[in-house]
Each structure stands twice: as structure tokens, then as C-alpha cells.
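Title: Request for sanity check on DUF4034 domain-containing protein prediction

Description:
We are preparing a figure and want to confirm that the structure record we downloaded matches what your pipeline produces today. Could someone re-run it with the sequence below and paste the raw C-alpha cells into this thread? We only need the C-alpha cell string, no images.
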Amino acid sequence: MPVFRRRKGSRPRMLPELDDAALGQVRRRVETCWDRGSLDTAVMALLKDVLGEVGDDWDRKAHRLRVLAGSAGRALPGIWREHNPRNPDALLLHAWSDLLQAGQEGSSIDLDATRATCRLAAELVPADPTPWTLHLATLRLQRRPSSELSGIWREIKARDPWNREAHLQALGYLSPDECGSSGQVLELLDSVRSAMPPNAPAVGLELAALVRSHQRDIGPGGMVALGAGEFWRRHDAVTVLDHAAHYWPGQGFLSHAQALADLNLLAYALIKATRPGEAASVLRATGGMASPWPWNAEGEPLERFSHYYARARETD
């Protein structure tokens, strides 16, 4: 199973699978099938293997499903499901593909049917939090009332208390840009802060909330943007950055599927907080692997990452 490790001397690159090499191999095969418009039995077997081999590492399963759904388009997950109507992974890939398509302007995806797919997958693998996480994501897309969220959240927490994807979906749902408010975001953070293990897959939740808040503040421009530098000198922001900068870059400290994405997030925040030395250390720890967010808030993400990564390598 791939885990985060320091890679020195690597050129900047952006791969959806990050450092999950097995996933990357299957992704490339899936993209070839997408180009042909057909899904052969050999690739269906690869999909089954790459999703099945994670066992109960639900965090990595969510990562692999997200990447494969993004690479497979709309038709291929439907073909795999048609051939394997009782395979829970085929159902979940189809549901995740629905979510990605539903987010596109003019989409005609029936999210009630997507939720029915999630319910069937949940019946087939009761221990898996992924169907419930995808159910939560459909509520977020439709701006459904929070009364519908509570029960789904309990189901997720009962199965995988620190699932990264679920916590980020909840953060998005509760944000003032979507269905909630700044106060509800704080309630979410307060509910997990003291109990979350320091290297849990969802460990980047509070930093993600800070970066989203920062980007929301600077988005409109004007006086809010001019005072954005003070944001990172707030006590809560300093506390989160101090802890993450000290621990996260350490060899093997973060081992979850999207550890490199969290390191990208930390590097970005340290740059915005004018802490270049620590940012350089974190950037070097990525080995040159970029993630789209948060760099895409300021232009082409790989270009922005590469700019700062080159500076970090100069100080190596």
C-alpha cells in the first residue's frame, strides 16, 4: 500500500492519484477505455482488484473511487455496473460518477436514484462508510435541510470516525457559501478537535476550514483583501500552523491516501502566513507532487506550485 514518503529531486507534477502507483496504472487504463468508448473485461477486473485490495481502509477506498470516477466519464461506470449489478464497488463508482456529473451545469442526473444506489451498496457492505458519505454529498449538492444530514452523519461516524472525504463534505455543506454558516463550521471543528488523533486521515480539516475562510475573505477584493495578512496571525490560525508545520512533514507521520494533498494545503497556508522557511520544508516533503487545490485559487495550479517549489529547492 503506498504511503507518504519524502522524494528528493523530483520535478513538479500533478497526478490525481498522488503517490498511489497502483491506482495510477488503473487510471491510465480506464482513460484509454474512455477514449475508445468501451470497457473490456480485463479493465473491469482491474477496477475490481484495485478497489477490493484496500480492504477496510475506507479512506483509501474513497480516494481511489474519486480518482477513477473522474477518469471514467459517465458511460464506463454504468457499463461496469450493468455487468456487475451486485458488486458494491461498481455501484459506488457509478454513484460517484453521478455526483461529478450532477455538479456540471445543465446536468439531468437523478440524485434520488443515486441515493438508491448508495442504499443498495450500504446493504451489501454494511461496514463501509462510503455509501453514506456519497449520500451526504448528494444532500450538499441539492442544498437539502440540515435535518437530513444528522442521521447520515451518525452512520458515517459509527463506521469510520475520521474519514477524510466525509469530513470535507460536511465542511463544505456547513460552510456559509453553501447550506450553513461560520458558526456551524466552528461547531463541527469543536466537535472533532479534542478527540481526533494527530495523524488521522481527517487531520487537515481545521486547516482546510481556515484556508477556505481566507480565500473567501480575499475573493471580493477591497479592504477585506488588504487586511487578509492579519488572518494568519490570529491565535487559532497560528496554533493550527505551528502544530502542522512541526509534525506533518516528518517521515511517515502522515500515511493516509491523500497525505500529499494535505501537505500542499499546509505549504500554501504557510506561504500566506509569511512563514517561508517552514513552507519550503513542507514543499520539499511533497517530492514535487502538486494538488489542484488550493493553488488553483490564484491561477494555473501546477504553475503556482512549481514557482514556490523551485524556491524551496534553491534553499535545499
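Thanks, this matches our download. The radius of gyration is 20 Å.
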